[in-house]
Amino acid sequence: MDMYVVVVSEEIYMGEVIMREEPYVCIPTSSDPLCQRCFKSGDALLKCASCNIAWYCGAECQRLDWKLHKLECRAISRLEKKWQELVTRTPEIRLMVKLFIRRKLQRDKVIPTTPIDNFDLVEAMIDHQSNMESEKLAEYQIMAQIVNHMLQQPELDLDEAVNIFCKLSCNAHAIVDIAMEPLGIGLYPVMSVINHSCLPNAILVFEGKLAVLRALAPVEKGDEVIHVLISYIDLSRTTRHRQDDLNGKYHFTCTCPRCSKFAEIDDQILDALRCKEGECNGFFVTKDRSYSRDQKLECNKCGLVKTSEAERSAKGIIDRLCDKGKSDFFSDNFQEAVSTFKRAEEAALDLFHPSSFSVMMVRNLLTKLYTTIGDTRAALESCRLMTPVHERLLQTLNPVRGMHYLTRGMLEWVEGNRGDGRNYLVRAGDILLLTHGTNFPLVKELLINLAKDHAELAKKQEGGPSGS
Known about the structure:
Pfam families: SET, zf-MYND. By secondary structure, the chain is mainly α.
């Protein structure tokens, strides 16, 4: 995006905000209703009576959104009920509808434009269309026709719509809360120029739908925003899997210092399939850096060769068990859910390294399940097993690591281990204060409670030895 260069005007310290950006367009995707305007949740939300899709937290948000949503409502009403359900399940279509509506409203000067809020920035985005699979492009063709039918804008070009669907696929951001739970998707044109690194010096977080870029390391005055690096993906994976994720969605190979370890067998083993040929206890790894669904994997001990399909098949076993466990949980069949997740944990340990992403994913689900049903001792046992894995795979200033410390600290505290609990809560506060600041109620509450505990501890120490 050469036409706009964003430069840092003042030196920024670790934990400070580099910039903020409202989305050009966004939509909620959470399973729980969210206000379409501000992304707030709550029992008082009201559904739009016309389309029965959009929710609002009050009359003010509905009024502020009405210029755009009025046309969105009209577009949705042009569809039969079964197609309306499809649009509801396909957030990319709704995002595209809102994007073209916003473009028209800005071109007609119904709503204003600014240097960082205009459709030219969307047009300047990289599309990677030439790298898209033909099946994906065919899917975008169908989706473009649906959008065209909904909007009935004479100036809407189907080829252009397909191209913008390609842009959305590699530029739209998942909007998440502090626990990394998905809230929606949004298009942030300025944020989209920020490059990726598996060793980022900044982090993108969301206050509602507002994107906030915070520094994880000092940023010098005069630096361009493109020199700031964030992560596009889950960093709790090994190099090969991070490369697969980046190639599959963003169509590039990361060359950051962390990814230079690609050829190191120890790195790959952490997320590799076990070899069970005879008495072999090796792991299937690859030296092929190219992205392919049929990569050749070779056992680092016996030399047996398999394709990555074997690895996907093994993960499919765990995924099916986890899906069943979630289904049992949502059906309030908690004991069956525990049994299913324990089987998934056993399968993951049997198929992969103990520090693998698959094992950690299952143990994370087990921790949440045990916490929900009130078995804090079992939740703590599962949570403790994840701590060394988080510390091995994630940077110190990673919010996932911070949230893990928060969970463990609370569980240790509830189980009477106040010293350990305090230690992990302090570590959580140190991370989350830098990555998210104090605008998040969870961080604010954590810091207040830590301050109270520190004051109480100091008071006890002044009065002599205590048992805490």
